[in-house]
Specification:
This protein is 37% helix and 25% strand. With 203 residues, the protein is α+β, with helices and mostly antiparallel strands.
Length: 203
């Protein structure tokens, strides 16, 4: 079957909150991205079926800047709710990215607000003021007016390409050797009378 590549990206102001609250916000990102896809897929106007997916969380971009987003590998269809037939996805344009974006924004901000109310968020430095309920409420209002980015790429060529895509993220490290400019010995004390160590400088 064909597969679709759907990506959910957090706006930069939310990324700042995520950087100081990684466990809580990354969990919200994964949950709400999944809920967004399953909700839209369940709608008869779009697919009217159950939907499975594989999700990969990225917290950094190619430039090694904090950039939380989720890559979703989504099959081109799903079983009907009565379990009697397979419902196939129409061309890629059938994934309504604007609808996905708005629902994702609403679900994410609702969970973020709940996390704040439950005391699961902490703020430091330049974000310290957000610990105040009124300031946090204003930030939520600003975030509701932003356009959130969700997009769907054309289908993969087949299962082999999907496995190759996922393999690049399950069998590689964040900074590959090819991105290192130099590797040099560096003296570093480890125990009395012994020194060893290496230092690498990334691109």
């Amino acid at each position: 079957m064909p597969y679709f590549h759907v990506v959910f990206t957090l706006p930069a102001p939310v990324g700042e909150i995520a950087f100081q609250n990684k466990a809580a916000v990354y969990a919200i990102l994964l949950r709400t991205a999944a809920e967004t896809l399953t909700t839209i897929a369940a709608d008869p106007r779009h697919l009217g079926a159950k939907l499975g997916m594989t999700m990969v969380l990225h917290t950094w971009g190619q430039t090694l800047q904090h950039h939380p987003h989720v890559h979703c590998v989504v099959p081109g269809g799903g079983p009907s709710f009565d379990g009697t037939r397979w419902v196939a996805v129409a061309p890629a344009s059938s994934w309504p990215v604007r609808v996905l974006s708005r629902l994702f924004r609403r679900l994410f901000l609702r969970e973020l607000e709940n996390a704040f109310g439950a005391g699961r968020l902490r703020f430091f430095g330049k974000l310290g003021n957000l610990a105040k309920p009124q300031a946090f409420a204003r930030r939520l209002g600003d975030l509701r007016r932003l356009n959130w980015v969700v997009y769907a790429k054309p289908p993969f060529g087949g299962p082999e390409q999907v496995l190759a895509y996922l393999g690049r993220y399950t069998h590689r490290v964040a900074i590959a050797n090819s991105r290192l400019l130099s590797l040099a010995k560096q003296q570093r004390p480890t125990s009395p009378g012994k020194t060893t160590g290496r230092a690498a400088r990334p691109r």
